User: Fold this.
Amino acid sequence: MISERILILGNSAAAIAAVNAIRARGGKQAIAMVSNEPCTAYSPVLTTYYLRGEIPESALYFCDIGYYREHDVSCHFGTAVIALDAAAQRVTLDDGTRLDYDKLLIATGASAKRVTGLDPEIAAEVRYLRTVADARRIREAALGAKHIVMMGGGLVSLQVAGAVARPDLKVTCVVASRQILSQNVDATCAALVCGHVERSANIEVLFGASVAEITRSGGGYRVCLDSGAELQADVLAAGKGVSPNIEFVDRAQIAVDQGILVDEHLRTTFGNVWAAGDVAQGRNRVSGEVELVANWIDACEQGTAAGANMAGEALAFPGSVAENITTLFGVQVAALGITRSREGDGLREVTYLDEARGVYRRLLLRGEVMVGATLLRDVADVGVLRGAIAAGREPWPSAKAAAKGHVRYTGLFKAALTGR
Amino acid sequence: MAKVLMIHPDKCTGCRNCELACSFEHEGQFRPGASRVQAYTWEREGMSVPMMCQQCDDAACVTVCPTGAMHRSTTRANLVDWDESTCIRCKMCTIACPFGNARYDAASSAIFKCDTCQGAPECVAFCPNGALEFVDDEQQVRSRKKAYAAKFKEAFQEVS
Assistant:
């Protein structure tokens, strides 16, 4: 009997979790994997740690070549997918290889969004951080640099700025909005973090600023801002978020919105094709919307569910939760669920600020139910808050106590123990 | 035989001796914040319960760890072990554990989770009421733990 052929496009969190899920169920399917990167699986989560010099490059890789052998996966690494014909159940790679499959998982992840509106030649020289290769390029570029202009003020932009800034290397972040981390945290939290940024490193943040034009100047660049101000830079960098790697998906075959639309079993609109990780657009458990949520934990959970479903078990994925935790300039920052409130969204906020300890915590509630949390410095109960937000629970005994972090998640345990 | 930590909420008085014993064993300090076990008390209900890592078979912290630092021990049964040297403190495990049993401690830059004191848990030794027990991993114990875990799971999922 010819065994079923499973093809997995991608080689990171979701893809590896899927392989693990399939093999954990004793599946004997023939698994092939395709990745456009010429290396074993590594975590993009860790590239900022590598950039800061905290870990060697070797520590980025969470699978060695032995993993693929042990899990009986045939690898096509360093080759990109150029075409997917779902009707013919065939994928074509850029080296001419054609792979036929019975079941397909698309888990190709996301890439850094490119800046637009620049001269194409100069745009090609802008550095981003997503892949190992990106991290290497930024490291090299920073070596002899004196001034880097960073377009963006999000988590990745700040991580990169913090990693490369030195007394003799200034980083100027050009931020369009009135605060840093505008996609992650509220203005109060952002202002507290920004204070740390500017105190602890040779970094300047320009708010409400955007780049009008960049031209060459000497060996570097002249960056003209909307305000008319000009900056000199010898390296350009940008962090504008990520977009899913789905260029090869034929939208006439597989429904795509911002990402590939998936149901609760991670199945796409084409029966034998699944999608997981940063490419998959499914239900957000907290907002209820069908939207793209790109993060490591969701990718792991989605990959596990997709793998189980492809192996024939019906395992529902309960929905995504936006979440992030990181250390920025020595301070822990966590953002869970909905963290940005908008006019008229009916959300209530409960905040707690302890300036002496530098602790700020903010819970967002819809009615009595917790839908989001922003935590600065005191992040000890992040897992419980995430669980409570994901399950739509009420903080106990009160939102105020939960915001303070003094009464940790006891309500959840009480419910578990007493059924009340 | 492999052993597991067993909780008896009905015997816990909320004295928090376990927290002191744990933090002293691991950090050399009497600092409940550094304890891997936390005793929770509901005053109105007159109920207390000690909580620590359940060493889950299918542990969320292990699944999400990008470096493999959080791993199922190969040398000891029933232990989810944390390897300090390969951990890069990304704190994914702390988000993933819905019980808050893997926590990041900024003061020592470490992930705190119960390691059963390498097979001789101090919390058990110092619990004056027998609310914590380190017992053989028998079928009976397993099913009790399972029932307990199911209750938690239910509590988390009932509204989702």
Remarks:
- The longest strand of chain A covers residues 347-354.
- Chain A has a mean pLDDT of 92.
